[in-house]
Amino acid sequence: MLAEAALFGRAIETFVVAQLRAKAAISRSRYRLAYLRKQNGRREVDLIAELGGGRIIGIEIKTSGRARRSAARHLEWAEGCDG
Question: In angstroms, rounded to a whole number, what is the distance separating the alpha carbons of residues 18 and 34?
């Protein structure tokens, strides 16, 4: 059951990234997509959207129907990250 949940999570993440990449290709406001992974994968942000003017948006992709503060812990870490 846990393996199925992990597989479902990866599938949803792949779907979201594919949709955002397709949108980036045709969007009038150009942005670049990347991910952030540090400390041998212990710290990561699923998706980073780099917009013009040095603006950055961090995106965490979750399958849960309810947002939890703990889901944002890596976004909070990345906010203070020096790259």
Answer: 12
